[in-house]
Amino acid sequence: MELILVSVRGFCAGVVRAIQSVEKAIELFGAPVYVKHKIVHNRFVVASLEKKGAIFVDDLKQVPEGSVLLFSAHGVPPLVRDEAKKR
Predict the structure, then answer these.
(1) Domain total in the chain
(2) pLDDT score for 4
(3) For residues 26 and 74, is the Cβ–Cβ distance under 8 A?
(4) Is residue 8 domain-resident?
(5) How far apart are CA 38 and CA 33, in angstroms?
(6) Over 80: is that where the pLDDT of 58 sits?
(7) Domain that holds residue 17
(8) DSSP 10-26
(9) pLDDT of 61-76, one tens digit each?
(10) What is the CATH number of the domain that holds 49?
């Protein structure tokens, strides 16, 4: 059997955009910035964003009123968006 090693490909464009969105929000609004669910399935990326000021939450009740909130690229139901707008 022949084993062929390929070079690292990096993140897809969607992941890169998601990371940049969180970083830009922190830059514009300051920390903390709340994010509904983890934006990527990579614990190292999540930890890096947490160090910069992102707080990942599963429930909108964890987000203080008036806070900046981003949704993950995976999306959320319209009901969740409506609830977030009220806060």
Answers:
(1) 1
(2) 87
(3) no
(4) no
(5) 13
(6) yes
(7) 13-86
(8) ---HHHHHHHHHHHHHH
(9) 999 999 999 997 778 8
(10) 3.40.50.11270
User: CA quadruple 62, 64, 66, 69: dihedral positive or negative?
Assistant: negative
Q: Are 67 and 26 in contact (CB under 8 A)?
A: no
Among candidates 2, 4, 74, 75, which has minimal Cα distance to 41?
A: 74
Q: How far is CA 31 from the centre of its chain?
A: 14
The 10s digit of each residue's pLDDT in 2-22 is 988 888 888 889 899 999 999
Task: List the one residue out of 37, 81, 34 whose CA is nearest residue 54.
Answer: 34
Examine residue 7 and state whether it is found in any structural domain, yes or no.
no
Look at residue 34 and tell me whether its pLDDT is greater than 90: yes
**Separation between Cα atoms, residue 2 and residue 55, nearest integer Å:** 45
Q: Is 61 a member of any domain? A: yes
Asked if residue 44 is part of any domain, the answer here is yes
**77: Cα within 13 Å, side-chain hemisphere:** 5
